[in-house]
Amino acid sequence: METMTGGQAAVKALEAEGVTTLFGLIGSATMEMFDALYDASGIRFIGVHDERTGTHMADGYARMSGQAGVILAGQNGPGATNLVTGLAQAKAAYSPVVSIAGALASGHLYRDAFQEVDQQALFKPVTKKTWTATGADRVPEMMREAFREAMAPRRGPVQLNLPRDVLSAQAEFDGFPTPDRYRPYAAPGGAPDAVAAAAKLLAGAVQPVIIAGGGIKNTGGAEECLALAEAVGCPVVTSPGHGDAVPFGHPLNAGQMGPRGNAVASRLVKEADVILALGTRVGFNSTFYSYDNINKDAKFIHVELEPTAIGRYFPAELGILADAPTLARQLRAEVEKINDRALADSWTEGFKIERASFLERRDAEAQVDAMPIHPSGLFKTLRDVMPKDAAVTMDAGTLCLQATDALNYHTPKSLFTPLDFGLVGFSFAAGLGVKLAAPERPVISLMGDGGFGMTVSELSTAVDYGINTVTVVMNNRCWGAEKAYQRDFFGERYIGADISSPPFDKLAELYGANGFKAETLSQLAEAVEAALDCGKPAVIDTAVDPAALYSFRRDSFKHRGG
Fold first, then answer.
1. C-beta atoms surrounding 341 within 10 Å
2. Whole-angstrom distance, CA of residue 105 vs CA of residue 164
3. What three-state secondary structure class fits 466?
4. pLDDT of residue 356
5. C-alpha 183: how far from its chain's center?
6. What topology does CATH give the domain 366-557?
7. Read out DSSP for 526-559?
8. Strand-strand pairing, 443-448 and 470-475
9. pTM (2 decimals)?
10. C-alpha distances in angstroms, 350 versus 258, 342, 359, 447, 499?
11. What's the pLDDT at 339?
């Protein structure tokens, strides 16, 4: 038995979980934890400048590493409320973030105390589960439960509130068990009858397609997915935001599907007679919940770890509760038992020709001489100069939405977006977390000028801790998506759409980072290569044509006759 404070026990519990990186912002409510962290040599503390962006760092770290990302808000009240946006983002991405916040002393509750807010109620809508520790002796138990919940399928963020008096109180503790003792896990396969039925449907299809989603990407299941596709002889499309689920160069990879995807992949899903959805909800970004984006007459096989997701938006011919890559291995074995698998040859060969033509046309039609820089030329330049093992983070907004399927992702995992939360201000901070999880990988963060302006203070974090990412600010001096809607549907009655910013290259230098200015594509190419080699965090302020805007959500404004 060992006597220690609740704060010391919290840090011991983090060590038992194998936490090596902890993001946080110091505050008086958790001083016992910070004092204990001083002696925790195995945990690297990354001090952030805002709890929201710190949560994005933990989110990026979690997505890249496959382990929980941990954020500590040192102050109750405002320190805790700043976490909400980051946790809502992590929840939309099924990202396993363990969020810890100091909380008001138990004896001060319900007295309108200084910085009082009901943190238990506050976090419930944006997490899988929220706890408030009731005593120092229960801190390790609740910490274990937080990690268990965050990492359990489907993964997601959790919140643990630690009151001041709980952290300062002492208790006796009898060891800190490691995760292998209390959360062993084996990925579940599909029921044999269901697997056999799915194999029969796929083998008998004339126009089959596989949709690979986060259940393939986040589990590293590209090999299993592609082996199945090769056995069936069918193309693979990826769900939005998961264009890196399978490597770009594979001949069966069609790219991102859906209303924001490319024309080839989107057509495949609209015309397929059998659709195998592997680890995807087939939700809003994939379909807008409309049969305009998926063939209503197709036999739909839906594979998910979350039972409530199966057939939720589109009725399934066959729903299978299973881990996506495990199910893919099972299906491949069954498909290979069926002799005649040549039915889809014509469909797949036609797709390959169409895909090759699309990629050639994408390069040929890129506007490489436009001034200011046109997005199509910017994306072609990035395709040409980005290392094949680069990891890319993106914001929401019109330019980043165009970029998701305009870049080539050779190495899963290499694309990190806000997904269905559509958050502006995510990319740069998330990129810092991705880089800490995979320091050997080049990390390039794409953002608009508005989004970068929201989060620029984290340049100090990047410089202070040597987190050397490259941020390409696509500077079109406006909130692009909204200005496009005002242009296309509201008679160019612009209000609040245009913004100003300082020269981000100069600002980066003031923070101690390297700054670059790009007004031509040749300058951009040179800047990206120099930034990757400079040994510092780098920002490239890139002038992009403010008129090159695109309205993605045209469906939302049909009532205006657009």
1. 17
2. 5
3. coil
4. 97
5. 24
6. Rossmann fold (3.40.50)
7. HHHHHHHHSSS-EEEEEEB-TT----S-GGGGGG
8. parallel
9. 0.95
10. 20, 14, 14, 36, 46
11. 65
Phi, psi for residue 374 in degrees, rounded to 5:
-90, 145
* Contact criterion met (CB below 8 Å) for 423 and 89: yes
Residue 224 · residue 328 · CB < 8 Å: yes
CB contact at 8 A, 24 and 73: yes
Half-sphere exposure of 508 (CA within 13 A, CB side): 24
Domain ranges of the chain: 2-181, 192-356, 366-557
CA–CA separation, 312 vs 502, rounded Å?
46
Q: Are 277 and 300 in contact (CB under 8 A)?
A: yes
Residue 112 confidence class, pLDDT cut points 50, 70, 90:
confident
Output the pLDDT for position 133.
96
**Alpha carbon 222 to chain centroid, angstroms:** 17
Q: Provide the token pair at 347.
A: 């469909």
CATH homologous superfamily, domain 192-356: TPP-binding domain (3.40.50.1220)
The span from the CA of 508 to the CA of 464, in Å, is: 13
Length of the chain: 562
Whole-angstrom distance, CA of residue 272 vs CA of residue 294? 8
Largest CA distance in the chain: 74
The 10s digit of each residue's pLDDT in 8-33 is 999 999 999 999 999 999 999 999 99
Q: How far apart are CA 89 and CA 322, in angstroms?
A: 25
* Measured distance CA(23)–CA(521) in Å, rounded: 36
Q: Which CATH class is domain 2-181?
A: alpha beta
- Please list, in sequence order, all residues whose beta carbon lies within 8 angstroms of the beta carbon of residue 90, skipping any fewer than 6 positions away: 55, 58, 59, 62, 97, 156, 157
**Order of all β-strands in the sheet with 158-163:** 44-47, 21-25, 69-73, 97-103, 158-163, 129-132
- Measured CA to CA, the distance from residue 479 to residue 500 in angstroms comes to 10
Give me the torsion for CA of 475, 82, 439, 185, rounded to 10°. -130
Supply 28's token pair.
């008086």
Q: Tell me the C-alpha distance between 314 and 317, whole Å.
A: 10
Q: How far is CA 308 from CA 154, 311, 321, 503, in A?
A: 11, 8, 10, 48
Dig out the tokens for 140 from the structure: 């390790």
Q: Could you tell me if 320 and 194 are in contact, meaning their C-beta atoms sit under 8 angstroms apart?
A: yes
pLDDT at 341 over 70: no
pLDDT digits over 271-282, tens only? 999 999 999 999
Burial of 236 (0-12, 13-18, 19+ CB in 10 A): buried
Q: Would you say the CATH fold of 366-557 matches that of 2-181?
A: yes
